[in-house]
Amino acid sequence: MKQKRWTAVVVAVLLLFCSCASQTQPPGLSSAGGASSSVFSGLNSESSSSGSPSSSSSSAASSASSSGNGVSSVKPGSLSSSAPSKASSKNQTQDPFVVPSKAPAQTSSKAATKSAPKTSSKSTTASKSTTASKSTTASKSVSSSKPAMAPVTAKMPSAPGTAVFSEGGAKIDYSHASQGYVMVKYSGGSKIKLLVYYGSRSSYYQYNISSGSSYVAIPLQSGSGTYRIRFMENVGGSSYAELCSTRISASCGTNYTHYPNQYVSYTRSSSAVATARSICASASSNSEKVSIIYKYICRNIRYDYAKAASVSSGYLPNVDRTLSTKKGICFDYAALMAAMCRSQNIPTKLVIGNTSKGYHAWNEVYVGGWKRYDATFGAAGQTAGSYTPQRYY
Predict the structure, then answer these.
(1) pLDDT tens-digit map of 192-227
(2) Nearest CA among 284, 251, 240, 88 for reference residue 179
(3) Which of 135, 257, 281, 362 is the most exposed place for a label (fewest CB within 10 A)?
(4) DSSP 8-state symbol, 211
(5) 60-154+261-392 has which CATH code?
């Protein structure tokens, strides 16, 4: 009897080990164990619809958690302090667009009101603006005796050509590296993937680059330091060889959080930008703007269960479509909030990582310190539990 019981335990352990070992890497993040070889096999092959990819290295999580005096979490009904966020030291194996294990219920106005953030007594001085509990619309969220802030213009990336690397049809304009981004383009006919390394790290993030005459923005999410950027050319099947590469140094901090990219894609004429401008017109502080935007999204966007069940790897959010359809998955919620806040010149990160409910997307917004906002679960007056960031966009 004892022998059978021990046999069952051994079998269970082996099955668990095999299950963990069989998981695959997510799009965007790859191990660069073969970084020194001339040909890479098996680079992720998901297509990029807009051709303006953005991603971050795992080091971004550690730098972000130490900036802004840590990360406070926005929970339904309050802003409570939490320990600084720390990224997992291992590459995540889930696809970042998988539905949380317990997706939130459809948005209701009551849940949105309940989940609107309020500042706790332990919050920093800059974030002590409070939200009126009896407000019924996002535009009436906070009553303030202070005058409204002056209108702002959304910042856009550009390629002025003052600092450029060019070789083999590939071009990198790093004139504004100090602002947290570089502009890249490729004019050849090959299938190209861009690999971005930070410092001496062996891990890299990859981006799909479409051939064309237009530049696309690549954010420098890992903060100040040295980046190695490689153009990888498809040489058959899933194999890629280096076309060219260069290194750049940037003193950029978290400046990328002011600009659009592929995951947080918008222009000055986007509906998301116009909506943010409209609902924040009377706000007297950035803290008030963030509260208004957060509550607006919670009250107007519902969770799209059908989309969650059918979304494929490589999916990228369209913030204006999310606004027009009034529904989306966690990735859409986070992209929309990042777009609306960034368009108001409020530093905002789109974060992908693990939570108690599963792999998920949320935001960190700078209002007197980095604070976590999860509009997906906030819309239902719920929380995803503990959060472990892995990637920043």
Answers:
(1) 999 999 999 999 888 889 999 999 999 999 999 999
(2) 251
(3) 281
(4) B
(5) 3.10.620
